[in-house]
Amino acid sequence: MPKRNSLKTSLADRADRYRLYEQSVQDPVAEVELLQDFYRRARGRAARSLREDFAGTARVACEWVSGNTRHRAVAVDNDPRVLQWGREHNYQRLKPGARRRIELVLADVLEAPRGPFDLITAMNFSYWLFRDRASLRQYFASVKASLERNGLFLLDAYGGYDAYRMLRERRKVRNFTYIWEQADFDPVSSCAVCHIHFRFRDGSSLRRAFSYEWRLWTLPEIRELLAEAGFAESRVLWQGTDVRTGQGNGVFQPTERGDPDPAWIAYIEAEPY
Ligand SMILES: C[S@@+](CC[C@H](N)C(=O)[O-])C[C@H]1O[C@@H](n2cnc3c(N)ncnc32)[C@H](O)[C@@H]1O
Predict the structure, then answer these.
(1) 0.85 cut: is pTM over it?
(2) Ligand 1 atom closest to residue 108's alpha carbon, by position in its atom list
(3) Per-residue pLDDT tens for 234-245?
(4) Are both 130 and 194 inside the same structural domain?
(5) Is the domain of 79 the same as that of 139?
(6) Do residues 50 and 176 both lie within one domain?
(7) pLDDT tens, 61-114?
């Protein structure tokens, strides 16, 4: 029989927003594979050391060290709550050997450990929290100073004309619904306000479980700033199309020309020297 208290609480009351986030927007096994593929293709060898910037729960960094005894990782986030959650739920689950090869660091990315690292990542558009050229350039320069000579910096970006629209997208995930809301966009600053909500079977919801106010940077702006920060080269990795479905096929190739898709996601890789 359920406890008396649980009859009173909704699914939203009992939900863990960090767990829901991981389940809805992260696929750590696939992400680690992708990182290794990108690195091997660009640098001709396997990457060993990773710094995951804006790491949140450090899910990817934990996956990185759990699958390979040669892998080391540093996960950086400036929010003590999310990092503590990552420590309790992801770090603690690692085998002792893997735990010795990872560090969860509470810091601003501008003050992150300098390594040097083979690979530094800034995923799920988190670096868009830097909203002017000077601060994004400063972040890129600090990344460059933290990379090995044959290191690689990997970022993602989204765009297309849907990116500028106010909209709500719903996606069923396990036993809840993930909702991505583009709530506001200011053409003058190019800044957008976005929220993540979760809705549950019992009708309850976690509204604004996560909110972001970030600048919608374009690919040429990002590449120009990477060059200004001293990166020798950058490439856009554009997703191919599945001929049957007309949707993205998950295969990203370097390109100098994209398609005018209404909604696209791309990666950018940058070489420091
Ligand atoms: C969109 S989440 C990304 C989580 C995860 N890495 C992912 O790929 O889904 C952004 C994270 O960046 C962190 N963050 C924001 N500004 C930061 C900064 N200046 N330095 C370090 N972390 C920062 C936030 O605390 C948050 O956990």
Answers:
(1) yes
(2) 20
(3) 999 999 988 888
(4) no
(5) yes
(6) no
(7) 999 999 899 999 999 999 999 999 999 999 999 999 999 999 999 999 999 999
Pocket test of ligand 1: the residue of 126, 136, 138 to mutate, having most ligand atoms within 8 Å of its CB, is 126
**How much of the chain exceeds pLDDT 90, in percent?**
92
Has residue 178 been placed in a domain? yes
Q: Does 194 lie in the same domain as 93? A: no
Mean pLDDT of the chain: 95
Residue 191 falls inside a structural domain = yes
How is residue 26 written in tokens?
Answer: 């992260």
Contacts 24+ apart (CB under 8 A), 86-91: 86/18, 86/55, 86/56, 86/57, 86/58, 86/59, 86/62, 87/58, 89/18, 89/19, 89/57, 90/57, 90/58, 90/59, 90/62, 91/58, 91/62
CA of 257 to the centre of ligand 1 (A): 30
What is the Å distance from ligand 1's center to 241 Cα?
Answer: 30
Residue-level pLDDT at 7: 60
- For the stretch 251-273, pLDDT in tens is 999 999 999 999 999 999 999 99
Q: What is the pLDDT of residues 160-196, one digit of tens each?
A: 999 999 999 999 999 999 999 999 999 999 999 999 9
Q: Write the CB contacts of 33 (distance below 8 Å, at least 6 apart in sequence).
A: none
State which residues form the domain around 28.
17-159+218-271
CA 59 to centroid of ligand 1, rounded, Å: 12
The count of domains in the chain is 2
- β-strands 264-271, 205-215 pairing: unpaired
Please report, as a single letter, which amino acid is at residue 46: A
Pick the last residue of a domain from 214, 235, 254. Answer: 214
Residue nearest to atom 6 of ligand 1 (CA): 55
Residue 10 lies inside a defined structural domain of this protein: no
1 within a domain of the structure (yes/no): no
* Domain boundary residue, one of 214, 229, 254: 214
CA of 267 to the centre of ligand 1 (A): 17
